[in-house]
Amino acid sequence: MINAKEFWKKRFSEHTKETSRYLKYIFNEHIGIALLFFISALAYYYRQWLQGLPEDFPTAWIIALAFGFITGYSPVRTLLKEPDLVFLLPGEYQLGDYFRRCLYYSYVVQLYLIFLVSAALGPLYFASYPELGTRHYLMMIGVVLVIKIWNMMSNWWMLKERNLRTRLVDQIIKVVLNITIFYFLAQGEWVYASIVTVLLVAVVLYTYSLSRQKAGLAWDILVEKDQQRMRTFYRIANMFVDVPHLKNTVKKRNTLVRAIVDRVPYRQNQTFSYLYKITFIRSSDYLGMYIRLIVIGALAIWFVSNLWVKVAFAILFLYLSAFQMMTLWNHHRTIAWLDLYPVKKEWKEKAILQWLQQIMLFQTFLFGLLFVFQWNPIGLVLVWIGGSIFSYLFIQNYVKKKLT
C-alpha cells in the first residue's frame, strides 16, 4: 500500500530543497540591488506616465490580456519523476490524495503572479476608470481567483488526452474566453461577462466529461510536463550557478560563427579565445541571455525621459550582462581534456577578459545608437564614454579578481 500523504511530504520536501538551493544564487545581492534600482525607477516613471494618460488608452484590453493569460496558464506540478512510470503506475488508484495535494500546491504557488500583476495594473485601472473604484477592481481580482481554479482543473482533466492538437485547441478556446470575460469586467459590463462565463463553464464541464471517458492518467505526459518545467528552472538558475542536472543544447548558428569565431587567428595562444567565443555563440544559455538583456535595457533607455536615468540604466544593464557572462569561465570546468592543452593559464584568463570586454563595448555601442535616433548627442557621448570606462574598470577590478 502507498501512503499518499507521506509520499507527498517526501516529494515536496525534496522539491523545496532543490529549488531553494538555486534560488539563493539567483536572488543574490548583486541581482537584488539591480532589481531594486530598476523597479524603483520603473515605478517612478510609471506614476508620471499615468498623470498624462490619454483618454483613449486601451486599458480594458491590457487588463483583459494580462488576466486572461495568467488564468489560462494554469499548469499542475505533479513532482513526478521518470522511475515513477514503472514503480507508481500499478498503484495509481492509491494516489488520489497525492494528486489533490499537487493541485493545491500548484494553485497556491501561482497566486503570487496574480497578486503581482494585479498590483502593477491597479494604478492604471484606477486612472482609466475612476468611476468604478477600488471595490470593483477587488471584485475583479476575486473573479480571477475563481476562474483560475476552473482553468487549473480543466487543464488537469485534459492531461488525460494524448492528442496534442486537442489539448492545444482547448487551451486556446479557454484563453480567448478568459480574455473576453475580463474585457467586459474591466468596463463594468457584468451582464456580457456573465454570458461569456457560462460559455467558459460549459467548456470546463466538457473537458470533465472527456476525462471521464479516459481510463487512467497519462503518466508519460505528466512526467514530461514536469521535467520540462524543471528544465526551464534549471536554465534560469544556470545563468547564475553551474547546474549539473541541466543538459545544455548546442545550436549551429553558422552565420555568427563565420562572422566572429572564424576570424580568430589559428595560433596556440588563441586557443581559449576560440573556445569561449564559440561557446558563447552556440550554447543555449549565453547568447539568448545577452540579447534579452540588451532588448530590456534598450526599452528602458528609450522610454525613460530623464537623461541621467537613461545613462544609469545603460550602466546597470552593462553590469548585469557582464555579471551573467562571467559564468563562461567555468562552463568547461568539468571537461578534463582541457587541462591537457599545451597552453598557459594566463592565455585562458586573457581570453575570457578580452571577450567580456568586447561584448560589453558592443553593448555600449548599441545603447549609444538609441540616443542617435532620439537626437540626443549629450546622452550619446555620456553612454559611450561612461560605458567604456565602466566596462574597463569592471573587467579589471572585479572580474579579474574573481578569476584568480
Automatic annotation (TrEMBL):
Transmembrane domains' residue ranges:
25-46, 58-76, 104-125, 137-156, 168-185, 191-208, 286-305, 311-330, 351-372, 378-395
| GO CC aspect terms | membrane
Is this entry keyworded GTP-binding?
no
Name the UniProt key words of this record, in alphabetical order: Membrane, Transmembrane, Transmembrane helix
InterPro entries reported for this sequence: EcsB_ABC
Q: In terms of domain of life, where is this protein from?
A: Bacteria
Q: Name one Pfam family in it.
A: EcsB
Q: Is Membrane set as a keyword in this record?
A: yes
Q: What is this protein called?
A: ABC transporter permease
Task: State the organism named in the record.
Answer: Halobacillus litoralis
